[in-house]
Design a protein that fits this description.
Strand content: 5-15%
Shape: globular
Number of strands: 7
Distance between the termini: 26 Å
Largest sheet: 7 strands, mixed
Structural class: alpha/beta
Radius of gyration: 21 Å
Length: about 290
Amino acid sequence: MEDKEERKKMEDKEENPQNDTVQANGQQSSKKRKKQKEVAIFGNYRNYYSYRIDQGLEEDPRIKVMKKEWFEGKNCLDIGCNSGLITITIAKKFGCEKILGIDIDSARIEDAYWNLRRIVKSSESKKNQKVDKSKDVGTNGITDPPDKTGRVEISADSPASHLFDQVSFQKDNFVLGWTIPGDKVYDTILCLSVSKWIHLNWGDEGLITLFSKVWRLLKPGGIFILEPQPWKSYVSNRQVSEVASTNYKNLKIFPDQFQEILLDKIGFRKIENLSSSLSGSKTGFNRPILALWK
C-alpha cells in the first residue's frame, strides 16, 4: 500500500491546469493555445468513449475479458453507464434477458437511448443489405443515417428490435437516490471506472454504500464486475470540484484496500483479477478488472 509520503510526492508532481492564453487584442491565441479540458465532476464526460478507447476498434476491449455465461439469459445492472455503449454491447453480444443502465446525468441517458436506436437501426440496415443489396429503400429507408432525434422505423419482429426489450436506461444517483427494487434482484452488476467518482463525491461512506448496495442487489452466486481507478487517477482529479477536493483530503480508504474490504467486510466469497492490462485502451486507462462472486 502506498504510504503517505508516496502519495504526497504524486500530488506534488501533478501540474496545475494551464489557463488559456488570450492575445492583447482580445482574440484567441494561435495553435499554441491549449484546448480547454472538459470538466465532469461525476466522470460524466460527453465523449468518454472517444478517448477511453483507441480508434479503429470494433468494440471496447474490456468486453474481451467478460464471459458469456455471466450475462446470457441474466438480469443485469450497469452502474454509471454514461452513453450506454458498454451496456448495449453486452446485451447484443451476450444475450442478457434484461440489462438496466443507470447514470447520474440525464444528458448521458439521452445519449444512451440515442445510441440504442442508432445501433438497432444499423443492425437492421446490415441485415437488409444482405437480403437484397440491389433494393433502393429511398430517402426514408432503413439505410439512411439516424436523424438527430434518433427516430427510426423498426419492425417489431426483427432480431435487432429485441434490444428495445432487453436494454433500458434510467437517470438516478445509485448511492444517494436510487431506491433498491428489492434484495437479490440481479445476476450480474457492472461498475466500470465509476468507483473513483463516487469516492471523491461522497467520500469513504459513499464508497461503502456502493459496495453494500451491490452486494444486497445480487442474487446468491451473482457476479460483481468492478473496474476501480488507481490512486494516481484520484490525484489527477482531486480538484475537479470543492466537494471532491475536501473529500480527497479526508479519505481513509484507498484503491489497494478495495479487495480486502469487499471480501472481509462486505462479504463477497471469491475474487478474480480478469485483466491488469488491456490492449486497445489508451495510456492511463490500463486498469485491473475484478470479478467478485457473492
